[in-house]
Amino acid sequence: MHLHGTSRINEYGHLEIGGCDTVELARRFGTPLYVMDEDLIRKRMREFRSAMAETGLPHQVAYASKAFCTLAMCRLVAEEGLHLDVVSDGELHTALQAGFPPEHIHFHGNNKTPFELEMALEAGIGLFIVDNFVELSMLNDLAGKKGINARVLLRVTPGIEAYTHEYIQTGQEDSKFGFDLASGQAIEAAKLARDAAHLSLEGFHCHIGSQIFETEGFRLVVDKMAAFIRECRETLAVETRILNLGGGFGIRYQKEDRPLPIRQYVQAIADAVKTAFAGEPVIPEVWLEPGRSIVGEAGTTLYTVGTMKEVPGVRKYVAVDGGMTDNLRPALYQAKYEALLANRAAEEPTEVVSIAGKCCESGDMLIWDLPLPSPRTGDILAVSCTGAYNYSMANNYNRIRRPAVVFVRDGQAKVVVRRETLDDLIHNDCLSPEPVQVKREEEEPVG
């Protein structure tokens, strides 16, 4: 397993993160346990900020909170001076409760409800990324009723298909996200936004996918968006000042992955923008929205090894006390991970095993064909790079409790999300609910 950030193998042969022995973390806080390397999170944020500053372009960096969103994480983002991207009332509520400045929040999403839009308007968030014609009209109406002029970007689907898993491609024409560029939807949306009485069109947003390991896709999308921005200026007299290129920067999950350094992604984007807008009256402010590339490698999940089963001549299954309830990505995306035994981290592998979760699903497999020292019941398995979309997608299938989350730094661990209790699982259940009349008395029966 590749060691990221502050991870190392200590003098006891144990995996250590943030100066904390992971075997002791497992003993103290139980397993499964999400361990987040706080120094590495802060380092990644600073790398994005400094790389953008070096380009000389006007810019902004917003953390995509869908990757990992808790009160503590929102506060950390604020401390590091980044803006915040949210996609639901839950993420917005979390940010506001953490004291995040609402004027630095952007609201994404392809199906924002009236409640969510009103909540965001009342909170005074900085900007909406409008995804479709229904939302465009609804936001204009709601903003008008509140006497507010809402700042907006239009999400454009540019027709760029990044080389990544089909479920996390977002820039292709056939997508649930955004106004399609090729069909003329995007230019029509720009016209409507221009004419909307209670909206201020400030620019455009696009996103071509996730886990991207090259820069060509970003160069292509900058060219397409530059041409579209010129078309808006020439045919609609629409002047905009922001080009939000989203995120999607890849990280290393396994040895085959070859992500580029953050500065290389950013410099390639900056060079593309400078070239595409050369001679234009205004070079737009370039916004980025990294999520996975900030928190992904900072996360490690600890499990306790339980039962084992050997199928002669086929494979050996090693079961752990978690699975698809705390890491849905292998079942959803066929995502691949690396791991080691945290309590025997210095030992060489002696066999190949497959790591099974404890859910009642044959597809609940975390890692296939993993080289390990011969596992024993009670060993602590550490799976790396689980900081993004693991806690975010955690669920209670089989009524399994969601894990705790700890931030580790300088030998100290802070519980930022407590482990669910059995009573938490039934907190919202109603054993003897009072019946509620749902017939609308004022309506006549049909027919």
From TrEMBL:
Pathway(s) this gene product operates in, as recorded in its UniProt entry? Amino-acid biosynthesis; L-lysine biosynthesis via DAP pathway; L-lysine from DL-2,6-diaminopimelate: step 1/1
Catalytic residues, per the record, are 360
Record text on subunit structure and interactions = Homodimer.
Task: Identify the species of origin.
Answer: Polycladomyces abyssicola
Name listed for the protein in its UniProt record:
Diaminopimelate decarboxylase
> Where is the Orn/DAP/Arg decarboxylase 2 N-terminal domain positioned along the sequence?
40-295
Identify its protein family.
Belongs to the Orn/Lys/Arg decarboxylase class-II family. LysA subfamily.
Q: Which domain of life is it from?
A: Bacteria
Requisite cofactors = pyridoxal 5'-phosphate
Chain's role: Specifically catalyzes the decarboxylation of meso-diaminopimelate (meso-DAP) to L-lysine.
Q: Which GO terms describe its molecular function?
A: diaminopimelate decarboxylase activity; pyridoxal phosphate binding
